[in-house]
Design a protein that fits this description.
Number of strands: 14
Structural class: alpha+beta
Order of helices and strands: HEEEEEEEEEEEEEE
Number of helices: 1
Shape: elongated
Distance between the termini: 83 Å
Strand content: 25-35%
Helix content: 10-25%
CATH architecture: 3-layer Sandwich
Length: 158
């Protein structure tokens, strides 16, 4: 049995160590982005909500429902405005629910829905149409807003 030692230069050692660290990092990132259905990954069954623009008018945001998903009962949209983002669902002929569109977990904009459930794209938190948490990691409900409806315009009271 021979006892042979091969000397490795500092440069070779550092290059090898960097390659190993890079491979380990890439493997970790690949598994984190795989959408493997873990509790912190968003659901693959959620569809993107249509986006409407809301107009700030004093202490209200006005949204035109004509020709959008809000024209039909059970339709839902994401509303973007300078006052914030909102999720609006039509619940009846003249009734709507409006909630804050920012996830209470880490502040991501909720832009997906799975039936009547809103789904956050960042970590998969799920909320019902009234803003109550159905599945975490979020723990706090979304803020609700009063709305009125006239002449195909939904008005959100801030």
């Amino acid at each position: 049995m021979s006892d042979t030692h091969t000397l490795v230069s500092r440069r070779q050692f550092c290059a090898g160590a960097c390659q190993v660290a890079s491979c380990a990092t890439l493997a970790t990132l690949a598994s984190a982005c795989s959408g493997d259905g873990s509790p912190t990954s968003p659901s693959g069954s959620a569809s993107m909500l249509p986006v409407l623009t809301g107009q700030l008018a004093g202490s209200t945001v006005r949204v035109n429902a004509a020709g959008s998903a809000l024209a039909n009962v059970d339709g839902a949209v994401l509303v973007e405005s300078v006052a914030g983002v909102f999720l609006i669902a039509r619940t009846g002929a003249n009734t709507f629910t409006t909630i804050d569109g920012t996830c209470t977990h880490e502040g991501c904009t909720i832009n997906g829905a799975d039936g009547a459930t809103y789904v956050c794209p960042c970590h998969g938190s799920r909320y019902n149409r009234n803003g109550q948490v159905q599945a975490g990691p979020a723990r706090a409900s979304l803020r609700q807003y009063n709305t009125s409806f006239a002449n195909d315009v939904v008005t959100i009271a801030l």
